[in-house]
Write a structure and sequence with these properties.
The complex is a heterodimer of chains A (260) and B (412). Chain A is an all-alpha fold. Chain A contains 11 helices and no strands. Chain A has one domain. Helices cover 84% and strands 0% of the residues of chain A. Chain A is globular, with a radius of gyration of 19 Å. The two termini of chain A are 19 Å apart. Chain B is elongated. Chain B is mainly beta. Classes of the chains: A mainly alpha (260), B mainly beta (412).
Chain lengths: 260, 412
């Protein structure tokens, strides 16, 4: 598995897209900090971008890589190597290279602008951790979709749809149900509803750390009570881990049956 | 004129019959109460360095009571310390500590009842229940005092400077922290509160009710539990105050409830959950205020008429404005909005497209507060954008027709 991981990783590291992605984050970090020197405020703006963009890039990269390296994968499958190892190697390779682009791309400008001396360091670290989780989650999800769909165009379509659903449509349904069921106590509901969407979960996790929690009033109090404690942090992190593990599990399950 | 009168009066007293009585542990008068009993109107009582364990000291003569550095009156956590019922007194350079907590009586470090023309200056109060409690008095000055305590909850703590049924008071240069309310006014008229710093109080930094014709300026209210509350008052002027970091689920910079004919200008509201919350406010002019990084800059609840928001700077607030009633005849004009995306073709400094401060999301949040968990979600950005392009839900007439392109106050 390590060999395949290494191969995938180096393959991606050599590819143009990794560089584009890395340079995009690098530029973004520099421009943000250039426009306002306040590291704290830059972290808030970054959150908006990371939460939307990281899943999107993860999804597209995952699907793209699967379909592009399909022939090579089939060649590998002909060798006496465990299937699971091949795909896990590829998966970890992609996720790891994307995460590296994210962490280095944003880390370099922020460190240069004096992050280490600022109070935002914890928030920034949380942002990167959440961003990395989102990478791992969405690459896994897109690999699932790609594995289940032979047709490349369809696969891309489904993957984009999945992203659109989790990033936008889910929130729409969530918001509408909140407005519709106005008269019921909704705090538990919204707490659970955020758990089912990794993007929402990451957003709330960062929002609460960024002190906007006080705005949330009563619901905020419930949220803060839950997420604000170490226990809540632990729970939400483990749910993010579950969000990584579950698609991987399904991937392996699918692999066993798949006829290449 | 009044000040001069007071000074002349005091001066003449001291010239005519100035007698100074010293209090120290080894003096003839070893207790403050004894010295006061021995004094006559116009005398000075000088309390030498040392700790005096006394409480419920009756001050019923027109005297000057002052100490030096190291003069401490310890109330033994038992009742009030100074209880004053005389006119024309001066209290300065004292330190009073340990005032007893009571659930039935208002124990205070300095309690002033039915007095006129007095000065309380440079007094340090620590570990107190109420600090300076003034009832039914007039023409008093409370200057440069420092009041502090370690209040834990509202039920068993008192207010710093508590003034009730008074007029022509001046509260200047005090620092109050760790109390229930920093400065509390009830039925106080024609008074001035300025250059005070009120911070880390568990309820309000400043709290006033039924207090008309008062002026508040150059004060700083910071990190208070619920911010500043002003209620049921008329003809108030508030300027150059700073309302900072009042951050909590039920906090605001400034709460206005049933306020009429008031001027609020040149204030700074920074990092409050709600900058200004208005309920039943009429004829209020908000001018040249800066709202910086608040949750809501302004939240208008209901029954507000003829409020004019002019030349304010709204910068980087999560939500600029929440409105849950009709716009009535409230007006927004010539404000600067950091989120304004319009253009100014004729270069006159005023945007050519009107700005709508109420977003669809803040409209939704007003109806369903729980929806706030969607803050900063992509979906919310999308609906806000579509609402901005063609308003359907948000009040049609609520807009700033002449938004400024540049902010008014460059200092921040």
């Amino acid at each position: 598995m390590l060999k395949i991981l290494k191969y995938s990783f180096y393959d991606l590291m050599r590819s143009r897209w990794s560089y584009v992605y890395f340079i995009f984050y690098l530029l973004l970090g520099f421009v943000l900090l250039f426009l306002n020197n306040d590291v704290n405020k830059a972290v808030i703006t970054l959150m908006n971008i990371i939460i939307v963009l990281t899943p999107l890039i993860g999804t597209i990269f995952g699907v793209m890589y699967y379909y592009n390296s399909k022939e090579f994968t089939e060649l590998l499958l002909a060798q006496p190597i465990n299937r699971k190892k091949i795909f896990m190697g590829q998966y970890v390779g992609i996720s790891f290279s994307l995460t590296l682009s994210l962490v280095l791309g944003l880390g370099i400008p922020f460190v240069l602008y004096g992050l280490l001396k600022s109070t935002a360091i914890f928030n920034f670290t949380l942002l990167l951790v959440v961003g990395s989780f989102l990478n791992f989650i969405f690459v896994a999800l897109s690999y699932n979709i790609a594995l289940s769909t032979e047709n490349k165009i369809k696969g891309f379509g489904y993957a984009i749809l999945m992203w659109l659903f989790l990033a936008v449509i889910y929130d729409g349904i969530f918001l509408i149900s909140l407005v519709m069921f106005d008269e019921y106590p909704l705090d538990k509901f919204s707490l659970i509803a955020t758990m089912f969407n990794p993007i929402d979960l990451s957003r709330i996790l960062i929002l609460l750390k960024l002190d906007i929690s006080a705005l949330l009033g009563y619901t905020g109090a419930v949220f803060r009570k839950f997420f604000g404690t170490n226990f809540g942090m632990l729970i939400s992190m483990s749910i993010l881990i579950l969000w990584v593990l579950f698609p991987i599990f399904r991937m392996n399950h699918k692999l066993k049956r798949k006829d290449f | 004129m009044k000040k001069i009168c007071i000074l002349l009066l005091l001066f003449s007293y001291s010239v005519i019959q100035a007698k100074q009585i010293e209090v120290c542990n080894s003096c003839e008068n070893s207790s403050i109460q004894k010295a006061i009993d021995a004094a006559e109107n116009g005398d000075e009582i000088f309390i030498r360095k040392g700790v005096y364990k006394e409480n419920d000291i009756e001050v019923n003569k027109e005297i000057t009571l002052f100490g030096e550095e190291g003069t401490i009156i310890d109330g033994n956590n038992n009742g009030s310390v100074l209880h004053i019922t005389a006119n024309n007194f001066i209290i300065k350079n004292l330190k009073i500590i340990n005032v007893g907590v009571s659930y039935t009586k208002d124990h205070a470090a300095i309690k002033v009842v039915r007095c006129k023309n007095f000065v309380i200056e440079n007094v340090i109060l620590d570990q107190i229940f109420f600090g300076i409690l003034i009832e039914k008095s007039h023409h008093g000055k409370i200057l440069k005092n420092k009041l502090s305590s370690t209040a834990k909850d509202e039920a068993n703590s008192g207010n710093g400077i508590h003034i009730w049924h008074c007029s022509n008071m001046e509260v200047e240069g005090n620092e109050v922290f760790g109390m229930r309310d920093g400065i509390y006014f009830e039925f106080v008229t024609e008074s001035k509160v300025h250059n005070n710093l009120s911070h880390n109080n568990i309820r309000y930094g400043l709290h006033f009710m039924f207090s008309n014709n008062d002026t508040y300026y150059n004060n700083v209210f910071k990190n208070n539990g619920a911010g500043v509350a002003v209620m049921f008052s008329k003809f108030i002027i508030m300027y150059q105050n700073k309302f900072l970091h009042n951050w909590g689920s039920a906090s605001y910079g400034l709460l206005l409830k049933e306020i009429y004919d008031t001027q609020i200008y040149n204030n700074l509201f920074q990092e409050n959950t709600i900058g200004i919350k208005g309920e039943g406010c009429t004829r209020i002019n908000y001018k040249n205020n800066t709202f910086l990084r608040n949750g809501w800059a302004i939240k208008i609840a209901g029954a507000c008429y003829t409020n004019i928001f002019e030349k304010n700077d709204f910068m980087h607030n999560s939500l600029d404005l929440a409105y849950n009633t009709k716009v009535n005849d409230n007006k927004f004009e010539n404000n600067y909005w950091s989120e304004y995306t319009g253009y100014d073709l004729d270069n006159d400094g005023i945007g050519d497209v009107p700005y709508r401060p109420v977003k669809l999301f803040s409209y939704v949040v007003n109806k369903t507060p729980e929806a706030l968990v969607m803050l900063r979600s992509l979906f919310v950005d999308i609906i806000n954008f579509s609402e901005k392009v063609s308003p359907v839900f948000t009040p049609d007439d609520l807009m700033d027709k002449k938004p400024l392109m540049k902010k008014n106050n460059d200092s921040i």
